[in-house]
Amino acid sequence: MSLQSLQGASIGLVFPGQGSQSVGMGRDLIAQSPAAKAVMREADETLDFALSTLCFEGPADVLEDTWNAQPAILAVSIAALRAIEEKAASEGVSFTPIVGAGHSLGQFTAMAAAGVLDFASAINLVRERGRLMKEAGTERPGGMAAVLGLDEATLEEVCREASGTGVINVANANCPGQIVISGEVPALEKAMELAKAAGAKRVARLGVSIASHSPLMEGVSIQLGKILEKLDLHDPAYPIVGNVSGEPITTADDLRTELRHHVERPVNWTKSVQTMIGMGANTFVEAGSGNVLAGLIKRIDRSVSIVSTADALA
After folding, report:
1. pLDDT 10s per residue in the chain (314 long)?
2. Is 213 an annotated catalytic residue?
3. For residue 24, how many other CB atoms are within 10 A of its CB?
4. Which domains, from first to last, does the chain contain?
5. Closest CA to 73 of 131, 19, 14, 134
6. The dihedral of CA 10, 294, 85, 240: what is its sign?
7. Which candidate in 77, 121, 212, 213 is catalytic?
8. Of 104, 121, 272, 308, which one is the catalytic site residue?
9. Mind giving me the DSSP string for 258-269?
10. Do 301 and 261 touch, CB atoms closer than 8 A?
11. Up-side HSE of residue 132: CA atoms within 13 Å toward CB?
12. Which secondary structure element, helix H or strand E, spans residue 203, and what is its range?
């Protein structure tokens, strides 16, 4: 779908989370959009290192390091949004989202997009979030695994049974039939075995040593909460659907409450998308690198339209 297809649409604006990074991301954006180029330049200046060069040229292992990947994804996602807005204005297309959301890390991008906090504050915040998560992963190693073909209730029971060997829980309800579990390695391995025995179509260990959205991140939540208390947050320009609650959030105070335990509690992406559709969103715009959310949204509700950044700028 093209940018013109957004004319008259009720737009749900969504942003990807960690895992969407890839070497070369953002390079095409800055080649065609002065607004996107300005965002990447501000990212470099704010962090005082060449984040843009890392995005464009790698190396991949450095980009994938969580404390680099998180600000990189946020920067490229905001750059993509500014490029879309720039083109929409030049073509006379109205681009006014009615609701926004982001998957995990993407929730911070959604807040920046909706004016809850400025770009510099947002990118510094997620840089620190990445550093703290990496540190937590070193102190309390863990892992994550994707499970295909089991419903959430069954997988929650699997995690309960495996919890005798350590911390383990459902971390991301991405879409029907695709759920991620997270926790300590012995418990994770036990849960993977139990999921296969319960009839999972596929169980795949993710290439991370950090148990995101699990109680292993409790210490990170405490430290991030202290940082958030010092930040000047504003009410969003439009509702943001929370990862934890799956409900629309309209005030800075409620967003602060949502984020206080964001990194240790599950992401209910299925409910988030369903809530956005219930609010009237009939067209989803995915601003960022790739189109990982498009596939999830289609599996949640095939009646909606989805426009990727590449589609919008074609």
Report:
1. 678 878 889 999 999 999 889 999 999 999 999 999 999 999 999 999 999 999 999 999 999 999 999 999 999 999 999 999 999 999 999 999 999 999 999 999 999 999 999 999 999 999 999 999 999 999 989 999 999 999 999 999 999 999 999 999 999 999 999 999 999 999 999 999 999 999 999 999 998 889 999 999 999 999 999 999 999 999 999 999 999 999 999 999 999 999 989 999 999 999 999 999 999 999 999 999 989 999 999 999 999 999 999 999 98
2. yes
3. 13
4. 3-137+215-313 (3.40.366.10), 142-205 (3.30.70.250)
5. 19
6. positive
7. 213
8. 104
9. HHHTTTTS-B-H
10. no
11. 21
12. strand 202-205
Q: At what angle do helices 119-139 and 218-230 cross, to 10 degrees?
A: 160
Is residue 123 exposed (0-12), middle (13-18) or buried (19+ Cβ within 10 Å)? buried
Q: Is 262 marked active-site?
A: no
How far lies 107's CA from each of 34, 121, 136, 166, 207, in Å?
A: 25, 14, 21, 28, 22
Nearest of 287, 281, 292 to residue 310 by alpha carbon:
287
Residues 251-258: contacts with CB within 8 Å, 24+ apart?
Answer: 252/116, 255/111, 255/116, 256/228, 256/229, 258/107
Distance CA 271, CA 126 (A): 24
- Give the strand pairing for 143-148 and 202-205: antiparallel
| Length in residues, the chain | 314
pTM: 0.95
